[in-house]
Amino acid sequence: MAAQADIGLIGLAVMGENLVLNMESKGFTVAVFNRTVEKVDRFLAGGAAGKKIIGAHSLEEFVSLLKRPRRVMLMVKAGAAVDAFIEKIAPLLEPGDIIIDGGNSHFPDTIRRTKEVEARGLLYIGTGVSGGEEGALKGPSIMPGGSPAAWPAVKDILTAISAKAPDGRACCVWVGPDGAGHYVKMVHNGIEYGDMQLICEAYQLMRFALGMLVDEIQRTFAEWNQGDLDSYLIEITRDILAKTDPETGGSMVDVILDTAGQKGTGKWTSQSALDLGAPAPTVAEAVFARCLSAIKEERVAASRAKLPAPRAKFRGDKAKFVAAIREALYASKICCYAQGYQLMRSAAVEHGWTLDFGEIALLWRAGCIIRAQFLEHIRDAFRKKPKLANLMLAPYFKRALRKAQTGWRKVVIMSAKLGVPAPAFSSALAYYDGYRTERLPANLLQAQRDYFGAHTYERVDRPRGEFFHTEWLK
Question: DSSP string spanning 273-321?
Answer without folding.
Answer: HHHHT---HHHHHHHHHHHHHH-HHHHHHHHHTT---------S-HHHH
